[in-house]
Design brief:
The complex is a heterodimer of chains A (114) and B (114). Chain A is an all-beta fold and 114 residues long. Chain A contains no helices and 11 strands. Classes of the chains: A mainly beta (114), B mainly beta (114). Chains A and B meet through strand 5 and strand 10 of A and strand 4 and strand 5 of B.
Chain lengths: 114, 114
């Protein structure tokens, strides 16, 4: 199993550009989530999903959209990138459907918005 | 919401010595406390977790202790090795409450000196 796969690993955007961060897992996990990691801030939850067709907001959802059309994929969209969205983004999945127990993280996407 | 604090922010230990990282939490309803290890350039990886109905859990050189009265829990690494050098994150959540928000601490940098 590959686990949780994120692409791309690095991305540079200009302010106002849009892009999609991809996340896929092959563990048949129902729960998937997106976090951002900023220096000195720990990990903060952006959006999460407890199954295909179900998404909800986390702690810092503004400026981001998600969808969950399949169990495997959970893309994160930035509609109009801003410098404040410069961060490292992690996708994570969990075998629990409604909990954050035992999260499996991807290797991250480092995003810079100029 | 839950607030989790970690101390110290950086810890240097000689190889073979023990390392202890402490986390405090604010919500007395929190009942699940995981620890994640993040190596440079990688995503966090779950190394041990504990539920509030036990006071201690061990896995080889790693242990976690929980003091519910004082609302703190600690990660203990014995016989440290260079590969233990990483950033360690603690987290807390109330499972079953349904808010799906795992509150992470800001991380501890552990450096094992050969």
């Amino acid at each position: 199993n590959a686990g949780v796969t994120q692409t791309p690993k690095f991305q540079v955007l200009k302010t106002g550009q849009s892009m999609t961060l991809q996340c896929a897992q092959d563990m048949n996990h129902e729960y998937m989530s997106w976090y951002r990691q900023d220096p000195g801030m720990g990990l903060r939850l952006i959006h999460y999903s407890v199954g295909a067709g179900i998404t909800d907001q986390g702690e810092v959802p503004n400026g981001y959209n998600v969808s969950r059309s399949t169990t495997e994929d959970f893309p994160l969209r930035l509609l109009s990138a801003a410098p404040s969205q410069t961060s490292v983004y992690f996708c994570a999945s969990s075998p629990g459907q409604t909990t954050n127990e035992k999260l499996f993280f991807g290797s991250g996407t480092q995003l810079s918005v100029l | 919401g839950e607030n989790v604090e970690q101390h110290p922010s950086t810890l240097s230990v000689q190889e073979g010595d023990s390392a202890v990282i402490k986390c405090t939490y604010s919500d007395s309803a929190s009942n699940y406390f995981p620890w994640y290890k993040q190596e440079l350039g990688k995503g966090p990886q779950l190394i041990i977790d504990i539920r509030s109905n036990v006071g201690e859990k061990k896995d080889q050189r790693i242990a976690v202790t929980l003091n519910k009265t004082a609302k703190h829990f600690s990660l203990h690494i014995t016989e440290t090795q260079p590969e233990d050098s990483a950033v360690y994150f603690c987290a807390a959540i109330t499972l079953g409450r349904g808010n799906n928000r795992l509150a992470f601490g800001k991380g501890n940098q552990v450096v094992v000196i050969p």
